[in-house]
Amino acid sequence: MCFYSRQSGETPTFCLLGRYGRKYGQFSSAIIRIMPFYRMMLAVIILFWGCNSKPAPQDNKSQPAEIEQITKELAQIDTAQKDPFEKIAKLETYYEGLSRQMQLHFSHDIFRSLFNVAYAHPDSTVLPFYKQQFERHADEPKIQVESLLSQAAYYLYINQQVDSGKLALDALTPFLPTFNDTINKSYYTLLAQVFYQKGDFQKAADYYLKTIKIAEKLKDSMAIIGNYGNLSAIYSSMDEEQKAVPLKKLSLDYYIRQKNDAYAFIGEVSLARSYANLSKMDSAFYHYENALKLKEKGISNPSVEIILYTNLGEIYFERGNLKKALYFFDLCKAPLAAIGTEEQRLMYIIYATPAYNEVKADISPEISEVKKAITLFSQQSNLILVKAAYFNLYMVAEKRGWLQDALQYYKSYDSVSNILASQDNNKYITQLRTQYELQKKQTIILSQQKQIVKKTAYNRLLGALLIAGVAFSGFIITYGRLRRKKKEADLQRQFSTGLIARSETERSRLARDLHDGLGQNILLLKHQVKDGEKIDVNSIDRLLDEVRVISRNVHPIMLDQIGFKESVNHICRQLSEKESLFISTDLEYNGELGKEKELQLFRIFQEGLNNVIKYAQAQAANIQTRVEGSDLIAVIRDNGKGFDVSSTLNSGASFGLFSILERSRAINGKATIHSGATGTFIKIKVPIDV
């Protein structure tokens, strides 16, 4: 899976070397960002109880001698039962045989022990056991709480079913007033995991920090270390690998000192990926080797093994060692068969297919599976994996001489790459903006100090440099604004023609015509290859570049590939992540509009959100679509400062609003705009296609 390189700290970038070579690409960390399973498994996780944390205070009136005896018997089960499935069965049976009072006292410890064994060796009997205990102890809130926490943990960490885990946590609501610190610690950790798997890293971090605060109060070092590991995974997911590495090292060192090989195994793989993402391959291989040694010692964690083997398989394939690549890809098959989900299997297929293409005569089954993966991950808006799939299909087609297929795959790959590149650029712009704000604050502080501190040559020089820096920044900003105004004026003149719809249609037609024309040239090249004629390889690259540039500039390909609804959700999520604006969506849409109307409405939403970000000074915005009779109603709403609609439209500087009105007319729709002190409301009414 190429689990190494730059993006999210856990990302290599596939790029062309010479003609068709590849270099470490940008796929691995993006998988951590988007796929809940990989984000969760490569965190140096602390299981939700805090592992060896102190048990919750018990409302216990039992005899100390009986408690001591049961504690010894549980320890004997732990040491005597080597087979994990026998240990689970023994623990379940033993718990059932305890008195009601002892079940109440030991529910926390036994439920935790069952989870720890099931986590390392997934066993399907544990979840039904937890549910059974909830039903049997309707009069014992403490056991019911332990059962629901256990169910949530099982869904989140073992089954990777985030929605089911959230439902189990929601069922805890009536019990919240009774929680003590230990239970709250477990509850917050599980909530953090829910948001983590959903990709809401900010909320996940908030809950992890709450958990750490409670753990510090309880002096629970294991929980503190584990949740620092969780924070490191969030840093990796947010492309902050430099911040992630020290926390991962801290966690791994702790587990090694505690001789906790199970967690050390996870930590070694996670830290190896981080070093690889930072291009520190010697350190990466050192920790990969440590993980393999732990596996040889008998440590078993199928989920982490899938990641480890697939990662090493991709690395060795990138380095041209096909034999080792196939060896590690083959090792993935056993853990995938044991616990692999459909998503894990398809991800494995995406990254293993180029290697198997080297040794298989018929690669068509794998190609079909990769196409199936594209459909699945497109529905999930997982553009990183869609990009990886298209690129690897392109590599396979090119290797086999299927030039027409290679062209199509590369077009799709390039389209997705541009979307992801735009996301990276937005992030970089945000970083520059933050640096600029920091520089302004530092300038103010230094200016104040200059009024107090004796003026020296050093201070004068420093002040001059700072003033020059601010002046240069001002020049850059002013220049950028002038360019934007000029561009807006040009676009204003374009939209005044009232031919928006016709323009889009013409552009799409032009893209198809150019593609068909160039396609004939490529077909000619193909015949030349078959006939053994010598051709100029660079001509193929030029044709590819030309088609790629033209197609990308005239039509948003991803709108066709993932659909209108998912495309709108995607841009809303993207803007929410990059700007200080919360954007919610409420989209009731089942394909009521044709492709042309979808395109124009998509552009309207883009323009409306851009206006909110640039001018409204709003904290939140909302996008809605709903069907009313024979019309589709689209709404853009924000809680910003508002403006005078009439004067703004008449000012000649209202490109964004004019764009919305013109695009609405182009699809026989009507746009109305209302704005005031409480925000702006834009309503677009579009006739449904019959």
UniProtKB/TrEMBL annotation:
One GO MF term attached to the UniProt entry? protein dimerization activity
Q: What is its EC number?
A: 2.7.13.3
The record lists the catalysed reaction(s) as:
ATP + protein L-histidine = ADP + protein N-phospho-L-histidine
Q: Which residue ranges does the record assign to the Histidine kinase/HSP90-like ATPase domain?
A: 596-690
Recorded GO cellular component terms are:
membrane
* SUPFAM superfamilies reported in the protein's UniProt record: ATPase domain of HSP90 chaperone/DNA topoisomerase II/histidine kinase, TPR-like
Q: Does the keyword Transferase apply?
A: yes
Recorded protein name is histidine kinase
Native source species: Arachidicoccus rhizosphaerae
